[in-house]
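Continued from yesterday's entry.
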Amino acid sequence: MDGFNAMLAGTGFVISPTAFFALIAWTLVWKGLALWHSAQREEKWWFIALLVVNTAGILEIVYLFFIAKKKFTDLFPVGRIE
């Protein structure tokens, strides 16, 4: 048993290393965006909550779209030069 699967042994949870690293990348993108915007808006408590709580990007997405009222194009300005 390799180290990665040994971590999950006995949990009943199985995930491929590719899916695991894709989840990490997904989470880092959303966490980075949410932390950046909460810092820009000087929302200290949101920044702390987003930094400490790990929800695979769910809390970060809720913050960005429902609290900070950002649009997808605000976060990922494809083809837009400012």
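--- second protein ---
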Amino acid sequence: VEIVSHLVEHWERGDWGGGRELFDDTCEVVFSTSGFPDAGAYGVGRDALDAWIAFTDSFEAFGTEVDQMIEAGDRVVILARIWGRGRVSGADVKAKVGAVLTLRDRKVVRYELTDRTQALEAAGLSE
């Protein structure tokens, strides 16, 4: 949880590239189809960061806030909220999301952004 907390500090400031040293070079980043337009698996680094930035850039304003972090063995589940205002539509968007980060040797080896239910289930938990 301590390692993931450092990442979250970067993300809550909108510093999406911050904390790169906390990811293993072989880390797989998975953006779920449940709410992400460029869903798929990416290697950690520029491709994953570019996909995330393309998503956040579609909003005039965008933010995240973590509600809870749950340690589950070698995984940390993040339950969070994202919000934004569509750049083109002007529509306000609010969503509850989840993420599962798998760690090995104090490095993130897998990061999956999904919905809360799927995040909890992946860690063998439920709401």
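The radius of gyration is 14 Å. DSSP finds three helices and six strands in the chain. Will compare against the first tomorrow.
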